[in-house]
Design a protein that fits this description.
The structure holds two protein chains of two kinds. Chain A is of the alpha/beta class. Chain A contains 15 helices and 17 strands. Chain A has three domains: 123 residues, no CATH class; 66 residues; 208 residues, Glycerol-3-phosphate (1)-acyltransferase, CATH 3.40.1130. In chain A, a hairpin with an 8-residue loop joins β4 and β5. Chain A starts with a helix and ends in an 8-residue tail after the last helix. In chain A, 30% of the residues are buried. By secondary structure, chain B is of the alpha/beta class. Helix content of chain B is 41%, strand content 17%. Chain B is built from 13 helices and 13 strands. Chain B is globular and about 65 Å long. The two termini of chain B are 35 Å apart. The chains are: A alpha/beta, B alpha/beta. At the A-B interface, α6, α10, β12 and α11 of A face β12 and α8 of B.
């Protein structure tokens, strides 16, 4: 059954429920709406009773709490990961009667319940509003319960008990000011730690041992590196160096630019693929962030080998550093070999024209080189995944390219940004824009066969197609972007 | 059973001697050694001829002795004391002209195969070298040190010779050779207390074990291989790691300074500076790693030692050097042996 047909049948069921007035049966309808599942209880008094149910894919069960009735009506909603059905049990009503099948597939992100008497609440409620109000009051009540639970805990250690209870109280006090996610994380951490022994002497002894172990490990690793006792891979990637850089990159990814990556399911779990990305931002941070997205959020934590400009290989310090971090010079031979090793290869076909473009030209994709990346992809049969990066254009607004200075210093460009070179080294600090990285659907090249790589028409067509996909995705995202720096 | 005759040119040199030592073990092989120098030590079973390679009688020799294969190990690289004495014209005569005439003679005398030893430095170290150079990559080491220029000349001659003649020529290109003997430009560089590096550059390095140099030459000979092959050990490492593994600590030098030193006219080709870095500085700056797929796929040679093992062998040799002050392989005059030999000859005469 196609999606449309499914949708139709749901509509039919909905209208049937409206017309027929069988007293006890409840009919559910599924309506597409991103991010939240909305339950509307029609029997109760109206939109005030709306409950948001954030469904995370990894959750085994989701608990529903009706805030209006203060736990009086609560139900559990077991969501199995791959199951096509959810069951809703309303504790308030007789359980056997209200047990209903709520057909849903995982990619359907929102649901609406329509009661038997036909009252239907289709009023779209803004997601933000609900989460701010209802979720907080829900968390608040949960916290209250947790606090009393701790206080009632039979334990000899009075001090510890009250300390934890106080922490919970503290969280309650500031819960309205905290983002929902943070409160939930704190809750989970608290719940799992109630019984741990923070105030136990042995606990701190353990911490001491761990620290000592860490110190030993660091000293040992220094000794090993002094002896040259480490390994690099076939292209010079040194995982130990990569681990050293990871904290900074993770900070930039999660906290500084708050990168939102989507479409990661388009990146294969294993096997080769060529990721074609737009390039911007004066300094090539965008490549690092795409790499971090794949390391942090891809289920297989895939390693991305970015291809960089030959110019970087001539720079002292930079050249070996890039090599040790798994980056490879952009040469067709290198790309081909990497893809034949079933690696993920990231390319930035705009090259210098992209990364050094002026601020006024932001989000206008430059020419995609001579399409060399398409040739390599066809030759190796690697699928091409268009990657659109939004946000990196604003990290170093390049207001003017001082060509004479660039020529004098042998740089490909010398940007004048609001901070560089006026603030000296501080000018290298990028602006904290909000980033989005969108991995597009893969474009297969295997069907052309390796010989097609020499067909200039096909190569330029594919190159242009990928460029327009990325450009369109960027424009689409820019339309809805709340602001350059806004967004959590 | 007919014995196969193999001619080793440059038998007095390191590689010639070692190859001969391996070959005499096979009873079906007859080894003739040719060199302009007298051998330090003669190997039993080798027939020595002391002569210049560029000799009109060479064809006759090859024909008369029914030489089937030639292992051409003559190359005055400027590393050893004797070869450093040669003028550039003399070394050109020996290296380039010698090889050309040898190939021509071999072809005329109906020799089946010639094996040449070359180096992967012939591609040159360039910023835009792919991480793995293949046998088809352009040879770009035309500038700089004379020996690489000569290698390039030879390679070009071999390529054109191949097009016009049916003689099988196996050219084996080796990266830095490493092992127990301590006698190669790379080992000379690594053996210093503090090998210099260029500040901020750390190219990937590739090595090959001495035993695999010998092994692959013999393999190419027995399989009558034809073509150019890279022979290198598995595993690459950054230069800094290579130096550290040998038990030394690299000293980074600001690269404009190092290049500047070499450009000062008085210091150009200064033996002392050349000994500190016995190759172009670019080889410490840019990559020149080669691909060895063809070695396995077409030549069918499997290296016996990994890069790690080769480096370890050399490190152990260096450690031993602390106690004995003699690098094995760099043979000191063996007085007793010479005395006994002279005595035996006298007895025979009587």
């Amino acid at each position: 059954m196609s999606e449309q047909e499914q949708e139709k049948s749901k509509r039919r069921r909905r209208t049937a429920a409206k017309n027929g007035s069988s007293a006890q049966t409840t009919e559910q309808t599924v309506v597409l709406d991103p991010d939240t599942i909305k339950l509307v209880d029609a029997e109760a008094v109206g939109p005030d009773l709306d409950v948001t149910l954030p469904v995370r894919l990894e959750a085994e069960t989701v608990k529903l709490v009706d805030t209006a009735t203060e736990f009086a009506a609560s139900g559990t909603l077991p969501v199995a990961l791959d199951s096509a059905a959810m069951q809703l049990v309303d504790a308030d009503v007789a359980p056997d009667v209200s047990a209903d099948i709520l057909p849903t597939t995982l990619d359907i992100a929102a649901m609406q319940l329509v009661d038997a008497d036909g009252a239907e609440h289709t009023t779209p409620v803004a997601v933000r509003n609900i989460s701010a109000g209802a979720a907080h009051s829900r968390i608040d009540s949960l916290l209250a319960a947790l606090e009393s639970e701790i206080r009632a805990m039979p334990t000899s250690d009075e001090e510890r008990q009250s300390a934890i209870a106080e922490v919970v109280g503290l969280i309650r006090g500031s819960v309205t000011r905290w983002p929902k996610k943070v409160v939930e994380t704190a809750m989970a951490a608290l719940k799992s730690n109630i019984n741990s022994d923070y105030l136990d002497a042995d606990f701190w002894k353990g911490i001491g041992l761990v620290l000592r172990y860490q110190l030993d490990a660091n000293v040992d690793s220094l000794r090993r590196r002094w002896r040259g006792d480490y390994a690099v891979d076939e292209f010079g990637l040194d995982y130990e160096i990569l681990e050293l850089a990871r904290p900074l990159l993770t900070f930039m990814y999660t906290k500084y630019w708050r990168v939102e990556a989507s479409g990661l399911e388009n990146v294969p779990e294993d096997g080769r693929a060529l990721l074609v990305c737009n390039h911007s931002g004066v300094l090539p941070w965008d490549g690092a962030m795409v790499g971090m997205a794949l390391q942090n959020e891809h289920p297989n934590q895939r390693m991305l080998r970015n291809l960089h400009l030959s110019w970087f290989s001539s720079l002292p310090i930079v050249a070996p550093l890039l090599s040790r971090m798994g980056q490879v010079q952009a040469l067709p031979e290198n790309a081909e070999r990497l893809l034949n090793r079933d690696e993920l290869v990231g390319v930035f076909p705009e090259g210098l024209k992209g990364v050094g473009k002026l601020f006024k030209d932001r989000y206008k994709l430059a020419r995609f080189g001579r399409g060399g990346f398409v040739k390599v992809a066809i030759k190796t049969g690697a699928p091409i995944i268009p990657v659109s990066i939004i946000g990196s254009e604003e990290i170093h607004p390049n207001l003017y390219n001082l060509k004479p200075v660039a020529k004098l210093m042998g740089f490909p460009y010398f940007p004048l940004t609001p901070t560089f070179p006026w603030l000296g080294p501080l000018g290298f600090i990028p602006l904290p824009s909000k980033w989005y990285i969108i991995f597009g659907e893969p474009i297969s090249t295997a069907e052309y066969g390796p010989d097609a790589a020499e067909d200039p028409l096909l190569v330029s067509q594919l190159s242009e197609r990928i460029r327009s996909i990325i450009q369109a995705t960027i424009l689409e995202k820019l339309k809805t972007r709340p602001g350059v720096f806004l967004g959590e | 059973m007919e014995r196969r005759t193999v001619l080793i040119t440059g038998i007095a040199g390191r590689w010639g001697r070692r190859l001969a030592r391996q070959l005499v073990k096979f009873p079906i092989i007859r080894v003739i050694g040719l060199d302009i120098r007298a051998p330090e030590r003669s190997i039993e079973g080798v027939e020595y001829i002391q002569a210049d390679l560029r000799n009109p009688l060479l064809v006759e020799l090859l024909r008369k002795e029914k030489v089937e294969a030639i292992l051409h190990m003559v190359f005055a690289s400027g590393l050893s004391k004797e070869s450093r004495k040669l003028s550039s014209e003399e070394s050109f005569q020996t290296n380039v002209m010698g090889t050309m005439e040898l190939l021509a003679a071999a072809n005329a005398a109906g020799v089946k195969q010639v094996v040449l030893k070359s180096t992967t430095m012939i591609y040159g170290a360039f910023v835009d070298n792919p991480v793995y150079l293949t046998e088809d990559s352009p040879l770009r080491a035309r500038e700089g040190m004379p020996n690489l220029r000569q290698r390039y000349e030879i390679a070009r001659f071999v390529a054109s010779f191949r097009r016009n003649h049916n003689l099988k020529i196996a050219v084996l290109r080796f990266p830095g050779i490493i092992g127990a003997s301590g006698a190669s430009s790379l080992m000379q560089y690594l053996a210093q207390p503090a090998p210099p590096m260029l500040l901020g550059f750390d190219p990937l390095f590739q090595v090959v074990h001495e035993a695999d140099v010998i092994g692959s030459i013999l393999h190419a000979m027995t399989t009558e291989a034809n073509g150019v092959f890279h022979i290198a050990a598995d595993g690459i490492m950054p230069l800094s790691q290579l130096i550290r593994r040998v038990g030394r600590q690299p000293v980074p030098i600001f690269h404009p300074l190092a290049y500047g030193l070499r450009r000062i006219p008085g210091l150009k080709n200064n033996p002392l500076l050349d000994q500190i870095v016995p190759f172009e500085l670019d080889f410490l700056r840019y990559p020149w790693v080669v691909d060895t797929t063809k070695m396995r796929a077409e030549l069918g040679y499997e290296p016996k030692h990994t890069a790690e093992e080769a480096v370890e062998t050399f490190r152990n040799t260096l450690r031993l050097k602390r106690y004995t002050d003699v690098l094995p392989g760099r043979s000191k005059t063996d007085g007793i042996r010479a005395f006994l030999k002279g005595r035996r000859e006298k007895e025979e005469q009587l």
